[in-house]
Structure formats: C-alpha cells, structure tokens
Design brief:
By secondary structure, the chain is an all-alpha fold. It contains 26 helices and no strands. It is elongated, with a radius of gyration of 32 Å.
Length: 584
C-alpha cells in the first residue's frame, strides 16, 4: 500500500463523510418539524418509543445526532430524561441501516442485475437523476430528494474509493500480521472505540472496516470486538454535547454510554466464552461487508433485548450518578432553544416558534395589566411590568441571535419563511413591552401628581382601551394559531384606532382651549394617546407578518397599501369596527 493508496483512502473517507452530511441534512429537511412532533409523542410505552427512535435515526442517519438532539430537548425542558431511554434503544437499532447499505460494496455475481447493485454502478445513475431534480425542479421537496440522492451517491462513491485504496492489503503480509495482533478481543474493542471517537461517526468507522474486510485478511473473531468498540465510540459526540448542559441533560449521553458499554460487556463475554469453549470454525473465516452488517445489527438488537427489562433501573442508576442540583428560587425561563437543536434545524424552528409565542403572550399580559390599571397603577403593578420588560428584552436578544445563526442551516423554504416572520415579530413584541412601560410612566405621573382627567377624556380612553384590548387579543391569538384569515381582521381595526386617536386628540385640544383640562394632565393624556396608537401599529405589523409569511416575498408595506385600497372585505370589516367603537 503506497502513498497514493493512502491519498485515495483519505479522499474516500472525505467523500463518505460529506455525502453522509448532505444526505442526513436533507432527509431531516424533508421530515421537517415532524421530527419534533414524533419526539413529543414519546410515552412510557417501550415499543412505541423504540420505534420512534428508530424512525428518527433513519431520517437523520446518525444515532449520535439523535443523542445530541435529545440532550438539547432535555436541557430545554421539552422532554424528560426518562422519556429518552427507549428512544436511544431505537436509535441504536436504526443506525445499523447504513451498514447494510454499505454492504452492497461486497456483492458478487456476473448477472447484470447483480452488478447493478454494486455502488460503483448504480451511484452515478442516482447522482444523475438527483442533479436533474436539483437543477430543474421548482418544488422544494423534489430538490431535497435530489440532494439526498446526490449525497447518497457521493457516500457510496467514497466507499468505493476506500475499497480500492485498501485492496492492496489483501496480499500485504504486514497487514495480515497486524490483524493477528488485534485478534485479542480487548484490543479490538479498544481499537473500534478509539477510531470511532476520533471520527465521531460509527457509520464511517464501520464503512472503513467493511472496506478492509474485502481484503479477506480480517477474520470474524477480530471484526466482532471492533464493531462492539465502534458502538461505544459513537457515544463521544453525545458526551461532548452534554458539556455545559443541566444535570438532567447530561444523563442522556451517560445512559447512552451505559447502554453501549453494558451491551459490549454482555456480548463480548458471550463471544469470548463461545470462542474458548467451542472454537467454532465460523469465527476464523474471513469477515465480509455483509457479515459486519449482521454483527452490527445483532449487537444492537441483543443489547436492546437484554437491557430493555432493566431500562427503569438504568434510568435510576443514571439519576444517582448525576443527581439533581438543588434549585433555589424560580427557574430561569428558556429564552431561546438549545444550541444542540441546530443538529435538527426543523426542530429548532418549531421550538423557536413556541418561544416566540411565549414572548407574544408576555407582551399581551403586560399591556392588559397596564390598560386595566392606567389610573390606579400601584407598586405591585410596576414591579411586575419592570420584571417582564427585562424578560422581553432577554427574549429578543436571545431569539434574534439564535434565529440569525439558524438561518444558514439546511432548512426548508417553509421554515425559512417562518424564521423571517419570527425575526419581524420578536421586534414588534419587544416594542409592545416598551409601550407598556411608557404607559406605566404615564400612570406613575397620574399617581404622583394626583392628576384627574375630565369625564369626556375618561370616556374616550375607555373606548380606546376596549379597541386596543381587542386588537391585542386578535393579534396574539392569530399569531399563536398562525391563522392568516383571522390576521386580516387586525388591519381594519388598526385603521379605526388611528381614527379614534386623531379624534381624541382634536377633542383634547378643544378641552385645553376651553380650560376643561389642566396642562399637566393634558401632557400625560397626549403621551397615552401616542402609545396606544403605537401599540396598534405594532399589532398591524405582526398581523401583516403572518399574512405575508405564506408568500415567498416579504413586503409588509406593499400588502397594507393593496389591502386598504382594493379589498372589499377590508372595507366591510372596517365599517363593522367603526360602528362598534365610537367616541361619544
């Protein structure tokens, strides 16, 4: 094996890892937010949870990525640690699919249909159709399917490169001697663990082993312990992802490592006992890619069957090894999804939506509180509003940074529009909180200076407060349900509120001229009117973002101008609101 063989091996490994990354990214994109929906349905029923873990791993093509995602979900409080154990069992079985696909490199036969099953023959065809989908299809899902096909083809070509690179080892006596050294099960276990930990991909290390097996120099007795070690090594990604997370989240990679280690201990003990007591000739035959796939699947199935009855005990053991930290005071709210969820962008988008809705509800509660206490705000009201304003600021800072980081990841066109909508909405929600604080300052002025509004001003404020409460509730509710039809009710009401504010200002100026209102009270009253109008403007922006979120192009001002001048439904809705809210 010369330097050029080493270069081809590195090239093949690079293609393999790149193809795996591309394929898994677009498979996850095709699955979209359904991955999160599946995970949230995980229950204590073992078989259902195992099946869900298997399906998710097939979609993501990586048990390590699933483990990292579970760490993120547990750290965010979305899932409980106890729900993840069965999912990990399913993930361990699901990840073996890749080894079966890679085993196609070892298929033998002269028939045309058999030769077409070899990666070097069918991969170019898949790549051709995949690139046609990517270049000429207008539908996003077909483009993603095309990318998956190209990624899979690159992965399989990488496997071909690795196979060709190691083929000279079949006649290399030094390599044969080296494999004899690793015939010791413990050495084989260690080798598989270290190589997989370095590559952080059990699929890649299994692929290398399958390529090496084509040399015919690796017996099953050597390959089996290496495969067991490779399954332990794949836990390193989850372990690294757990750094800096809560103790409950750290339990996920810990229990994953326990499952793999205990499984290796059980299977290796049985393997060694059988080898010493019975010395079956099968163990000394040369391993093949198909044989390695069988070992890989058998190991994970046996581990699951052996440990499944003790899953609750494993969870309790993990909890004892990593006990809960003593909590002091109220738990800090989650202001943005966990960074680890970037491994599954569609899941990150869905969780960002949930947190954005939480932010909107917080802004709604702040404005509702101050609108109902505008002339009688006390210290309790002030403290609550100031605390929630800080939370709103924290939400905006964290979500804005997170969504900007999420944008370049492999997200679907639909998710990309959701990100754009959220980036617009969080700014408006934060500004709603600012106006609540501005109204609080006005309320403090009223209380501090013992100001009194005229009965006419109080009546005008009551009408405006009713309209503001309705537009606020409509806005937050339609954002929560992403109801585009309901969002169309917001802009007509916003126009009515603008008209009400203008009329209230005219009446206010008249009262000042007629000395029906003091100057100090008039200044505060004007500030209140300004903030109420601004609140309705931000509600309009959020509603427009919901409506425009269903379009490829995002232009709020163009939409608002069009709907005001050419939509009969808008004019009818505006008329109904105008009749409902009138200044007497």
């Amino acid at each position: 094996m010369d330097i050029f063989s080493v270069i081809r091996l590195i090239c093949g490994l690079t293609f393999f890892l790149f193809g795996m990354k591309v394929m898994s990214g677009d498979l996850e994109k095709l699955a979209g937010g359904r991955l999160e929906t599946v995970l949230k349905r995980v229950t204590s029923r073992p078989l259902l949870s195992i099946l869900m873990g298997l399906v998710i791993t097939v979609a993501m093509q990586s048990s390590s990525a699933v483990a990292v995602m579970l760490v993120g979900l547990v750290n965010s409080g979305i899932m409980a640690f106890s729900q993840t154990v069965y999912v990990l069992f399913g993930a361990n079985i699901g990840t073996t699919l890749t080894s079966w696909l890679l085993a196609l490199s070892g298929i033998q036969g002269d028939a045309v249909w058999i030769r077409m099953l070899k990666p070097e023959n069918f991969s170019p065809i898949l790549a051709f159709f995949g690139i046609l989908f990517v270049l000429f299809s207008k539908k996003e899902k077909r483009k993603s399917v095309g990318t998956v096909l190209v990624g899979f083809s690159v992965l399989m070509i990488g496997m071909v490169f690795m196979t060709q690179a190691v083929s000279p080892l079949a006649e290399d006596e030094r390599f044969t001697a080296l494999t004899v050294r690793f015939n010791n099960p413990l050495f084989g276990l260690l080798l598989g663990t270290v190589v997989t930990a370095v590559l952080q991909s059990s699929a890649a290390s299994i692929g290398i082993l399958q390529a090496l097996s084509l040399s015919g120099a690796i017996p099953i007795s050597t390959a089996a312990p290496i495969v067991m070690g490779q399954n332990i090594g794949t836990c390193i990604t989850g372990v690294l992802s757990g750094i800096g997370s809560s103790n409950e989240a750290k339990r996920v990679p810990l229990v994953h490592t326990l499952i793999k280690t205990l499984g290796a201990a059980i299977c290796l003990s049985v393997f060694v006992a059988v080898r010493l007591l019975f010395r079956p000739p099968l163990l000394e035959t040369a391993a093949t890619p198909w044989g390695i796939a069988v070992i890989h699947s058998a190991y994970n199935v046996i581990t699951t069957l052996a440990l499944l009855p003790f899953s609750k005990a494993l969870a309790r053991l993990t909890e004892r090894m990593l006990p809960d930290k003593k909590k002091t005071g109220e738990a800090e709210p989650v202001y943005a999804p966990d960074e680890r969820l970037l491994y599954a962008p569609a899941v990150a988008v869905r969780e960002s939506e949930e947190i954005t809705k939480r932010m909107g509800a917080l802004a709604q509660s702040m404005l509702t509180l101050i609108l109902t206490n505008l002339t009688k705000a006390d210290d309790k009201t002030e403290n609550e509003l100031q605390t929630n304003e800080k939370r709103l600021d924290a939400y905006e800072d964290a979500l804005d940074t997170y969504l900007v980081r999420l944008s370049p990841f492999a997200v679907s066109e639909s998710d990309s529009r959701k990100i754009t909508r959220m980036l617009h909405a969080i700014g408006d929600f934060e500004r709603l909180g600012d106006h609540a604080i501005n109204l609080l300052h006005a309320a403090k002025e009223i209380r501090k200076k013992d100001l009194v509004f005229s009965s006419e001003a109080e009546a005008d404020l009551a009408v405006l407060t009713g309209a503001l409460t309705e537009i606020l509730n409509e806005t937050i509710d339609c954002y929560r349900s992403n109801d585009r039809e309901r969002a169309k009710l917001v802009e007509p009401l916003e126009q009515v509120i603008d008209g009400l504010v203008d009329k209230a200002r005219v009446r206010h100026i008249r009262r000042l001229r007629e000395s029906g209102c003091t100057v100090e009270a008039g200044v505060v009253y004007g500030e209140i009117l300004t903030n109420l109008e601004r609140v309705s403007d931000h509600c309009s922006n959020v509603a427009a973002a919901i409506i425009e979120g269903g379009q490829k192009e995002y232009d709020t001002h163009r939409y608002l101008n069009a709907v005001k001048h050419s939509d009969p439904a808008f004019r009818e809705t505006y008329r109904r609101y105008e009749e409902r809210y009138q200044l007497m």
